[in-house]
Amino acid sequence: MTRKTALGMAFAIFLTAFVSAQSIAAEWAYISAGVGHTVAIRTDGTLWAWGYNSYGQLGDGTTTSRATPIRIGTAANWSSVSASRRHTVAIRADGSLWAWGDNRNGQLGDGTTTNRTTPTRIGTATNWASVSAGWSHTVAIRTDGSLWAWGFNHSGQLGDSTTEDRLTPTRIGTATNWASISTGHSRTVAIRTDGSLWAWGSNWGGELGDGTITTWVNNNDRHSPVRIGTATNWAFVSAGNSHTIAIRTDGTLWAWGSNRYGQLGDGMGGGEWTDPDRGRHTTPVRIGTSTNWVSVSAGSSRTVAIRADGTLWAWGENRGQLGDGTTEARLTPIKIGTATDWAFVSAGVGHNMAIRTDGSLWAWGCNLVGQLGEVTPPSLRSIPVRVMP
């Protein structure tokens, strides 16, 4: 399968979800699960949010948490959104960039460290293409392929060769062929248009994938983008708390970093606190033999993914957040339910959100602060439940 075929397959699934959603009430098109809050976009371009809101990360002008989806503002031209620990960033169809929530490290990018409780426009540029919110930093790509970053930079996660925080978007390097990005706790991973994979920032779990690891003796954090391996067929990558998962254009799945809870999926993890190094990989390793993976999302200590046949899979830590109805950790990918119409999935720290091809929204995992979006929320859902519009 070529890179064009793989990306086309993923797009076809998303397009099906978008078109099918027009005929039903729950017209959900895009979803992002943060630490304790969730933000989503409907097919009409409206923005919705729910869950924890003490820092204004929902964007409704308050710091009141919400247990059900609430519309944010009146704009109907939102195209993508990324929710993190306490802040949210999003792009509108006109290419403008917006941010709100916690701003103590300048992660909103408005030149201040003042929290914002409503979407605030960042700069005047109208050529933002994609954005990803890390724990306390933000990274984005413009339509010209240039890379930009701002916020907390203690581990070099911005990639500007320093450890200085940045309060406004700062250009990273001179390359103009960045294609996609994903931010983890204190690091960033990205793919260029030539299919090469790059990473920078914290490396305590070997999560960068360059064969090294940061210890108390040797600091192998990277303060600028470092190429990972020589492969040129990377199609999709997702950064979790201390592990990374990626898909190549041939549909194969790869993982590296910490494997304490089995989040890599190779069957070698599960050491937890008694043996935290068990199963760790400092370079990408292939997971299983399947060649039909199309999308993946790395959570805190688990992973959820979708195959080309529309089936949903999960593995790693499981206090109910895998969705298989148990609290048993899984060291290899396990199929979740029997549905074959999953289109998009996003893993937060303790909860997951997903959209099916009919446009319906589903949630499972931790719900202590209303992040699942249910009217009468229990503290936990161990299987996917539908979130009503």
List descriptors:
389 residues; four-stranded antiparallel sheet; disordered N terminus
Main sheet?
A: 4 strands, antiparallel
Measured on Cα atoms, how large is the radius of gyration?
19 Å
Q: Which parts are unreliable, with pLDDT below 50 for 5 consecutive residues or more?
A: 1-24
Strand order within the widest sheet?
1-2-3-4
User: How do the SSEs run, as a string of H and E?
Assistant: HEEEEEEEEEEEEEEEEEEEEEEEEEEEE
Q: What is the approximate shape?
A: globular
The percent range for helix content is: under 10%
Rounded mean pLDDT is 92
What is the count of β-strands?
A: 28
Strand percentage: 35-45%
Concise synopsis of the structure shown:
The chain is mainly beta and 389 residues long. The protein has one helix at 3-20; strands spanning 28-33, 37-42, 47-51, 66-71, 78-83, 87-92, 97-101, 116-121, 128-133, 137-142, 147-151, 166-171, 178-183, 187-192, 197-201, 222-227, 234-239, 243-248, 253-257, 281-286, 293-298, 302-307, 312-316, 330-335, 342-347, 351-356, 361-366, 380-387.
Give me the secondary-structure topology:
Blueprint lengths: L2 H18 L7 E6 L3 E6 L4 E5 L14 E6 L6 E6 L3 E6 L4 E5 L14 E6 L6 E6 L3 E6 L4 E5 L14 E6 L6 E6 L3 E6 L4 E5 L20 E6 L6 E6 L3 E6 L4 E5 L23 E6 L6 E6 L3 E6 L4 E5 L13 E6 L6 E6 L3 E6 L4 E6 L13 E8 L2
Antiparallel strand pairs: 1-2, 2-3, 3-4, 5-6, 6-7, 7-8, 9-10, 10-11, 11-12, 13-14, 14-15, 15-16, 17-18, 18-19, 19-20, 21-22, 22-23, 23-24, 25-26, 26-27, 27-28
